[in-house]
Amino acid sequence: MTDVTRTAAQLKYVQGGVGSVVRSITSKFQDGLNVRDFGAQCDGSTDDSAAFQAAVNATGSTGMIAADGPCVVNTAPVLGKKNIYWNFGPNIAIKGRQTAFPRMFTNHGIPAVGPWIQSQSPVVSPAGDAYSAFSVETLPPTTLAGGVISIFAGTNLTGNGKDAIATAQNLVATAQNGSSGNIWGQEIDVGMFAPTGTGTQFGLSLNGLGTGNPTFGVKIDRSDKSKWQFGLDIRNAQVGVNIENTSGMNNALVAGTIPTIFAGTTAMIGQMANGGSALILQRYTNTAPGGYLIKAINANNTEQLFSVDIGGQTFAKSLAASGTVSHGAQEIDKSYSYNTPSSGQVVTMAADSETAIIDPASTLAALTVTLPACTPAHDGSIARYSSTRTISALTVNSASGTVSNMPTTLAAGAGHASLCRGANTTWYPLY
Question: What is the pLDDT of residues 21-44, one digit of tens each?
């Protein structure tokens, strides 16, 4: 009988394709290693640290190492400058005292499983400012009429486990203790070099299939010990947030503690805490301010219904169908001031005041009434005043702007009103 025993070094391997070359069996087997080749037990009790490190040491500058089962790794393997593709089986469970291997965990502390690439490549990206562990590029034909997907990741949840969690994609970016710099869980760059009007571009598009109603399109959450400084930060956008009722949306925005959510209400905002404010509106500048804090208009944008300008002046259009004002639409002035001046004094109407009641103890020989500022932002504002006693010499001026043809006396029980024309910042008498 002929002895055909051969050592691994004597056996050769040829891939068989055009251009393939002869390699030793040993070299071929080293393309993919298994920690069990180096003595790992993966029985849940034996420390397999040495076997994991030996497998890394036996791998070239890049290679694949397989492992499966409950492996105890008390000392994390040191990769050096190598790139390792860990082919973890479905029964993998890395246990042990160390916390650096595997390094990736979800927000619930679940370690990453399945194929896992640890890359320490010295090759930077074409942009010259980043390293990449895994790159995918799809080059569609120029005649493409449908869609193209570079990476398709999904999961399919079956069964009736009420606590089951199926995640199609879990991205983990970890800043270790002592590290510095910026960290992104995911960066999506949309390179737009085509002229406008060639289609719609999305940084992120959330849609799906089925007849059920998923709970959240986007959920921003963290643990009780760590909070996001900003849940959502939008910059350099023509429109920060655009919400349209295109599919039977009941509410566009619900914020705070809202006991009852009313369908058909665009926004419902409640206090976050007792003593706080549900809504604060702040004007842009205090130097020559203009515009409105609140403005309500009709459906075709032809008529103003209600407004609060940046000076706090309010305007409300009566909803009565005729010239008679019903009680429900009755004007209520909560900004009036009550004044008891002496002769020669000045009654100054505040910026947010519409009415000044003057109630002197007796007839006044002279009095000055200063109307609120009249600016373009106050166009249409009304200021009025009345006196219970005669004012023999009345002077009317304005905190800002000018006045035109104002009365010089005021009889007992009489009053006057003026309207601000913002175009020339002038108060004009009404009566």
Answer: 887 777 776 678 899 999 999 999
